[in-house]
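Hi V.,

Quick status before I head out on leave. The structure for the redesign project is tokenized and pasted below; the design run finished overnight.
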């Protein structure tokens, strides 16, 4: 195993560390590594610990690799709102029609923070269809 693969493996393991500073430092390091870390990060989006999933989603958003889109969209169904929020943020950095459609669906999430982040993510993408939909939602009192 080469050094980079070993480093990535160790950083993925550190996403589960008890120390939150180490977890975030690992996510930052994986994001800086970039493309070689994409597949391992995609792999841990299904991890049983939400802290691992949300940091993986964050790192994938920072990397911006289109290969993560399908798995991130699937992760929008996560039972933990904080994971969904990080996934929404990550998708907002990636853009594209498939992403816009998925983010529009998140405007109806049960959690208001997820909805707010979906609005922000759609604003970053600047898609005309989503802008029209957001304008319509602003008129809704609910």
């Amino acid at each position: 195993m080469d050094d980079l693969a070993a480093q990535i493996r160790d950083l993925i393991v550190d996403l589960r560390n008890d120390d939150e500073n180490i977890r975030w430092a690992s996510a930052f390091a994986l994001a800086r590594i970039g493309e070689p870390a994409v597949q391992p990060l995609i792999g841990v989006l299904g991890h049983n610990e939400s802290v691992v999933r949300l940091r993986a989603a964050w790192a994938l958003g920072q990397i911006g690799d289109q290969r993560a889109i399908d798995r991130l969209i699937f992760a929008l169904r996560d039972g933990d709102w904080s994971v969904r929020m990080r996934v929404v943020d990550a998708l907002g950095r990636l853009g594209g029609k498939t992403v816009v459609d998925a983010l529009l669906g998140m405007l109806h999430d049960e959690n208001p923070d997820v909805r707010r982040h979906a609005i922000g993510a759609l604003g970053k993408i600047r898609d005309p269809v989503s802008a029209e939909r957001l304008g319509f939602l602003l008129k809704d009192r609910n």
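Above is the designed sequence. The longest helix spans residues 20-33.

G. will cover questions while I'm gone.

Best,
W.
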